[in-house]
Design brief:
By secondary structure, the protein is of the alpha+beta class. The protein has a single domain, classed as phage-related protein like fold, CATH 3.90.1690. The chain contains five helices and 15 strands. It is elongated and about 120 Å long.
Length: 329
């Protein structure tokens, strides 16, 4: 039997929606879901620069050669192996805020609003920096200056078939896109092998969340892709005292050339994996320009300020880094 729908309140009944003396119930906390994790920024050392264009030298050796020499030989001078001179440009990143004098003194939820907004701008600026250094943006000295992102320094890696081509490797251009293809373990191993032959191997792989999930599937013995020879280990862990746990994630890939930490990055471009050797890459902020707080001149009854970062990315050994481009994932 259905219950009857009751009639509205009688006339002149004093109800909550018309009462002026009901207090608001506003939680004394401000919730935030946007994350400020920045894997690349967080793992790099910060080594200052002194000029808008910062330069560095990279020394390589001649290839090994087995050349027998005659007894009592007359020396023939080999040409000097000159170091390669590279540079990158300092870019300005800024986030600003303006808060009225009234808002700064009224009762409000959370911290004083100007201080709270500055904190948010700092978190946003850190995300902006992550986006900039993980990108394929090219350097420019013209105002507004721009730094060359990580990918523009990579001549080791993999590009799609067809028109795919590597960057020059000096920050002046990006790769030429090729045909998209699925990620395979072979693509990763080929990159690491090339890095090994160059002298140094990356230890970190940055990738989108979509690629991170796909990489985990590569370890499975069933499901797509089914042709991968990697054997899944520790999928089921159980004991008499604990429930069964299924492990569907891969956080470290143990390659033929060392361990590779697999880190998802919200700000990395789609369809790429960046293989990073953190020993040969660093942030280079200008003096007193590393996430500094600034207060600007007053233009009325308000407080204006911001957070500023000015610097660049210094890839001290480009051949120790790699990028896998043109992935379907």
């Amino acid at each position: 039997m259905a219950l009857p729908v009751m009639s509205p309140a009688p006339a002149n009944t004093y109800i909550e929606t018309t009462a002026p003396n009901v207090k608001e119930d506003l939680a004394d906390i401000i919730y935030q879901i946007d994350k400020d994790e920045t894997p690349m920024v967080s793992m790099l050392d910060s080594v200052g620069s002194e000029q808008v264009m910062t330069e560095w030298l990279v020394q390589e050796l001649y290839p090994a050669a087995n050349v027998p020499q005659p007894e009592g030989f007359t020396a023939a001078m080999s040409p000097a192996k000159k170091p390669l001179r590279l540079n990158n440009i300092c870019q300005i990143l800024a986030r600003t805020v303006s808060v009225s004098g009234t808002l700064r003194v009224v009762n409000q939820v959370g911290e004083e609003e100007y201080a709270r907004q500055l904190l948010l701008r700092g978190q946003e600026l850190k995300r902006d920096l992550e986006l900039a250094i993980c990108s394929e943006s090219v350097k420019t000295i013209a105002d507004p200056r721009a730094l060359a992102g990580f990918q523009t320094w990579c001549t080791v890696g993999s590009v799609g078939a067809g028109a795919g081509a590597f960057p020059t490797g000096d920050g002046t251009n990006g790769h030429t896109p090729g045909t998209l293809r699925d990620l395979t373990i072979t693509l990763i191993e080929d990159c690491l092998q090339a890095n090994f032959n160059n002298g140094e191997v990356p230890s970190v792989a940055l990738m989108s969340a979509n690629i991170k999930r796909y990489f985990s599937v590569l370890a499975a013995t069933t499901g797509a892709p089914t042709t991968n020879p990697i054997v899944q280990q520790n999928i089921l862990m159980s004991s008499s005292a604990q429930p069964v746990t299924m492990n569907g994630a891969v956080d470290v890939y143990r390659s033929n050339f060392g361990e590779l930490s697999l880190i998802p990055d919200r700000f990395i471009p789609a369809h790429v994996i960046e293989l990073v050797n953190r020993n040969f890459i660093e942030l280079a902020p200008l003096p007193n320009r590393d996430m500094i707080e600034q207060e600007y001149g007053k233009t009325g009854d308000n407080t204006q300020g911001g957070i500023v970062w000015e610097g660049t990315l210094r890839v001290t050994a480009p051949k120790a880094q790699a990028t896998v481009w043109d992935l379907n994932q």
